[in-house]
Known about the structure:
Structural class: alpha/beta
Shape: globular
CATH architecture of the largest domain: 3-Layer(aba) Sandwich
Mean pLDDT: 93
Low-confidence stretches: 1-14
Radius of gyration: 24 Å
Amino acid sequence: MPDAGNRGGKHLDGASVILTLEEIQAAISPATFAGEPSRHKISPAGIATDSRQIKDGELFFALSGDKFDGHDFVMSVQARALAAVVEESWFEKTKPVSGNFLIVQDSLRALQNCGRAVRRAWQRPIVAIGGSNGKTTTKELVFSVLSQARQTHRTLGNLNNHLGVPLTLGGLQQSHEVAVIEMGTNHFGEISRLCDIAEPDYGLITNIGREHLEYFVDLAGVARAEFELFDYLTEHHSTALVNIDDPTMRAKTWGNLPTITFGFSEGAQVRGVHATIDEDGCPTFSVNDVFMRVPIPGAHNAINALAAVAVGLQFGVSLQQARAGIESCRPVSKRMQVERLAGVTIINDAYNANPESMRAALDSLVAMPVAKGGRRVAVLGDMLELGEASAPSHREIGETINQLKIDAVFAFGEAAREMVKTVDANRLAAVEHFNDKRKMCDAVCQFLQSGDLVLVKGSRGMAMEEVIEAFRRAS
């Protein structure tokens, strides 16, 4: 299991949890309370799993992870926490003489059950967002659109897993009218479990791409994993928003699942009409003659924005309000963020990468204008978790680069070596591969000059944003 200890956890800011401690105890049953009885009637100020960030009155869940065990920090939070949820094995071994505790068999399952209990007490619509690429950007666009007409709650950052979803649900308030919950997966069954916790009323899958092939093997496996969301919606007679521009989704028959289709393709119920990519690399499109500009670079963000429009329409958001929501949204950290340093324009898309998102980012690099004398430079890291598809997928990216007007490639990582082997070095100003990131940073900093346009991208484990930091220090 990924690290779930308090050193890697999160807490949510905001008003109190809508359940009292007594109600939470009932929801995570079997659970025993040990401590001051008067606390039973109090609602926690929030839910936390990080002892370093615990706030007064929050309920602390002690989770065990690969690197840390939250139980090691339970006593340090007692002065601030309303109570701590701990496992019986720890409590029996430690035998604390003071403090307030909810004692359970499994603190992770207790957290998940707590999140589900809050969701059920709240009783309003939830929109779940899954997919291989663009989940977080789409979630932010949907949130921005819905917020034009409804009090909206959303996943903070990318807290989209078995920890993040219940934490997000714990932040629901009675003032919220709708919630947007992001759901990620890299193993079969994970989306199903997240749906059991969040119980969504609507579901949207951005696309089906070659993600986590180390576990899913092929595109069919990815589809099977992502479609767990639509399977849940089918079972519960809920509504799916279907991107018919995606070949996998377009080819599937949905049976009894209520669907709303969106896309730029003929026949979409919510259909967009492409316009242009502007000088900042941002896409524009229209819906029923209402023109919209997406302030996030990349042609692929047009479909993400159209998805947000489709969701908005289901909640009574007008097209004019949707436009205001789209145009006020801003890029998420390390996802097609554009910044300018020393005359160089940098596209920071370093959060993650797979073959489809890499191709989309390279297309954006080529679509954006470059200053006279400037060069288009790709600084790329390994695409991870591709299993046996890794080598051919990296070679495919090299072949893609050969088809595009890119002037230089700097690649980092063992898998990226296959990419560089495929690139036609004779037509580029520079093609270099590195296994030492510091050496690559030095080479990139020496190569770049005013007027250049640079894409920085790789899987999360490659931490490619460090190249940008090196250039910032050198500028």
